[in-house]
Amino acid sequence: MRPFHEYVKNHAQHTPDKAALIVAGQQLTYAELDELADAAAQHLLATGMVVGDRIALHAPTSLETIACALGVMKAGFVLVLMHYGIGTEKLIHQLNDIKAKTLIVPAGANLDELTGKVDVQFVLHMGERFCPGQWRTTEFDGVREVFALCDGALNSAEVCTIFHTSGSTKDARGVAVSNRNMLAAYDAVSSYLGSFEDSVVLNFSPLHFDYGFYNIMMPLLGGGRSVTESALPERPEQMLELIRQYGITAMHILPPAVHFLLQAEPDAFQGETLKSLKYIASSGQALPVKHIRQLRASLPHVAVYSMYGLTECKRVAYLPPEQLDQRPGSVGKPIPGVRAFLVDEDLQRITQPDRVGELVVAGDLVMLGYWNKPELTRRVLRNDLFGEARVYFTGDLFRMDSEQYLYFVGRKDNVFTRRTFQVNPREIEQVILSHAAVSEAVVIPLSDEVAGHVPKACVVLKKGCELSADALVQYCAAQLDWYMVPAIVSFYAALPRNLNGKTAANLLTAD
What we know:
The chain is an alpha/beta fold. It has three domains: 6-15 and 28-178, Rossmann fold; 232-352, Rossmann fold, CATH 3.40.50; 416-507, ANL, C-terminal domain (GMP Synthetase, Chain A, domain 3), CATH 3.30.300.30. It has twelve helices and 27 strands. Strands 2-1-11-10-12-13-14-15-16 form a nine-stranded mixed β-sheet, with helices on both faces. Strands 7-6-5-3-4-8-9-19 form an eight-stranded mixed β-sheet, with helices on both faces. Strands 17, 18, 20, 21 and 22 form a five-stranded antiparallel β-sheet that branches. Helix 1 (6-14) crosses helix 2 (30-45) and helix 2 (30-45) crosses helix 3 (63-74). It is globular and about 70 Å long.
């Protein structure tokens, strides 16, 4: 099996001058990108580290950071991606948890707070375009001559990359994936999105986030062009300007970015200059039906792919665009190479339509396990079930209709009880989002001495709209059972996001 990074080298040999990567307006050709990856690999090999050592990359998304990620894999080390915005305590915990041999940071990074708290042998500071002579090495004296790169040194089934899930300091999990996992994801996704060779893909997710990593890397593997912005622009109209500026053919974005895009003035969606855009693909969270319909109205020529995936299994399902009008609430069927089942609490397969159960998946996309968490790995990865050698229990609740289309219900651990009745926050959110004045909504459980828990609705209104809490409660009461009606409604200017750009419901409180 071809190493992940070798695809880029192949394009560098055959189309060296083709633009490969654009980050915040700066560009690299395939030849330049591969040259920088080689430079990074050479410098890392010169430290004397061995194949399989963990290299932590702690830097904002940039041309150099992306090339460095390829260089780590090229040299045969395990790439560990860390968000540059995490706090010191979390960084220390993650570095020690993975036993990182080397930490790579931007030039000038202050690491005083790490002194004596991490067991890292080498700290490498990236210089601009990091030719080996421009790197500054801390806690390391002398660089030995390197005669050759050890391309493909890692076995395709061994740990190649570790992604950290979002979570508190102690709860964040290192998801270990292999070269085989990553290439299986690429093959599966490109089988329905099509070849990336002529694509220009726009992404706003950071490199450390698995969704951002694949959004950046997949066009590069396919010989296309990857365009990345480090954050959403100040105004939604600027997203449309990026499409015009770079001739964007595809946007791979999270639902909050879709919501942001839809805030643009209606006139901004007009004009021939947006005709380059072929499709919008969204994953990470369920795409609200309301936003799907708004996208269809604003950009009728653009195909919309509603998808579902997890860090532990890059992509599980997608809904073909031609099914969108008929099944707007569905995330589709399993992608090629993934098998999916619904099971009840007794681990029995559910075959009846529309019955809710936990989603269990199998296939080459499923992770190797959680780094340094054997008990948790054993709990979610189980052997010899449902005719599969190994399956992953996602913890997500779904239902499946009579034609095998999947519908996300909610997280297994998010469903709560109100006076013995099961409350699913997502059902309430869908009703609230159907109100003409509502832009975004998240429902969270609040502790209650009598009822156990009650639902609180956290709502963002559309610009220029007004709505009272009482009016929204009445709207919900007309469509939901009494125990599903929010007990409290709070209005927000904006909902909080986590480091990956997803809505951070855990940051919303009773206040």
